[in-house]
Amino acid sequence: MSLTTVITPDFSEAVPDLNPWPLTVATYNIHGAVGWDGEFAPMRVGDVLHEMNADIIALQEVPLGGNGSPNVLAMLQDVTGFHSTEGPTGQGMERRYGNAVLSRYAIRDTRAIDLSFGSREPRGAVDADVDCHGHPLRVIATHLGLRPAERRDQIRRLLQVFDTDQMAVILLGDVNEWFMWGRPLRWLVSHFEAVPAPATFPARWPIFALDRIWIRPRHRLVHVERHDTPLARIASDHLPLVAHIDG
């Protein structure tokens, strides 16, 4: 009499889902983590990030620490568990601040783009290569200047870096463009094609579409919406802008 051993597969450990699509990206000017009530509350910003549940987030006006000043990016990285990279645009004796990217996926490489214009406030962009489980994605997060001539110069310089077809490219951030048909927006539409632009500023009564998300190739952008919740309306003077991207 022979005995046959039956081996039952062990499914106790789920196989991880390595397909990142659809991907959720967002841009959020956090106003130094100071809300409409004047309160410095980084953890409140963190709560907004949890509400959004985005995979990649571009942040503007982020305190980056220095000389005893709080490092808000480090706090937000801690509460999300995400990878991060920073792009300081202002560094003084008391504090560092600027742009940043938080990512659920590994950030393989980062470049800084200097967009400063004359004697105006220093500006820049973070240019990051994100590895979404083997699917490369280039993310350029920025915060443009307040004057039209400044923005025109900055957009011209930004468009010069979009010279690769090796991976999808996302440009997102606070472009500070108040005029719907201003030249900077026309140039961006010519390069990326038109995309929806919900109003995000001011947060409590949004009228202006200052925060934008573009992707190339355009067909991968599925949906764009502002993240409008009671918490988001008080945590900053901008509402976050969220986009869903397919593979």
TrEMBL record:
It comes from the Bacteria. Gene3D superfamilies: Endonuclease/exonuclease/phosphatase. GO terms for cellular component: membrane. InterPro entries: Endo/exonu/phosph_ase_sf, Endo/exonuclease/phosphatase, GPI-anchor_lipid_remodeler. The keyword Transcription does not apply. GO terms for molecular function: endonuclease activity. Transmembrane segments: none annotated. Residues 26-238 form the Endonuclease/exonuclease/phosphatase domain. Keywords: Endonuclease, Hydrolase, Nuclease. Pfam families: Exo_endo_phos (PF03372). GO terms for biological process: GPI anchor biosynthetic process. This is Endonuclease. It comes from Noviherbaspirillum cavernae.
